[in-house]
Design goal:
The chain has 163 residues and is mainly β. The chain has a single domain, classed as Distorted Sandwich (Coagulation Factor XIII, Chain A, domain 1). The protein is 0% helix and 41% strand. Strand 1 and strand 2 form a beta hairpin. The radius of gyration is 18 Å and the shape is elongated.
């Protein structure tokens, strides 16, 4: 296993790449009506080490929208590598942002790679990635003007006739 000498990191972990995948393609302009996947590629340089990957996502005004990690309490399904000891090698850890969670506009991402927990930080990369979330044509069929707010989730709304 060989990692480039100029890659960010140290003798524990080297960061290879961070990218946005949407609709099966690498993009800087994902659509909000599609899942947005943040992929983090890294070389684990230590045999039998554990790794915790986390992200912070900010809007264009620098307001933190959310944080997440490959921990059980932050994931919809357990990441099987969370409690495993990693062999040396290249890994990719990804996080999928659900459809229609983010509002349109520019977002910035911080990536952190830790050992066992948040107190064991190995790599902190601030503003490593920026992407511009795009609306689809259908997002404006019933609403004119700017959507306000940091997020734009589709929520369950129902009306009942009670009398």
């Amino acid at each position: 296993m060989e990692a480039p000498a100029t890659a960010p990191g140290n003798d524990q972990v080297k960061l290879r790449a961070v990218r946005i995948i949407s609709d099966g393609n690498i993009t800087g302009k994902p659509r909000i009506d599609k899942e947005i996947e943040i992929q983090v590629d890294y070389w684990n340089m230590e045999k039998d080490a554990r790794r915790l990957i986390s992200i912070h996502v900010y809007n264009s005004m620098g307001i933190l929208i959310f944080t997440s990690a490959n921990t059980n309490c932050a994931s919809l399904v357990p990441d099987p590598w969370l409690t495993k000891k990693y062999p040396q090698g290249l890994f990719v850890t990804s996080c999928t942002i659900p459809i229609s969670l983010l509002n349109n506009g520019v977002h910035n991402v911080d990536v952190f790679i830790n050992g066992v927990g948040s107190h064991d930080n190995i790599i902190s990369t601030r503003n490593i990635l920026s992407f511009d979330a795009q609306e689809s044509e259908g997002d404006r069929s019933e609403h004119l003007g700017e959507w306000t707010g940091a997020v734009r989730p589709r929520l369950l709304w129902q009306t009942r006739h009670i009398e």
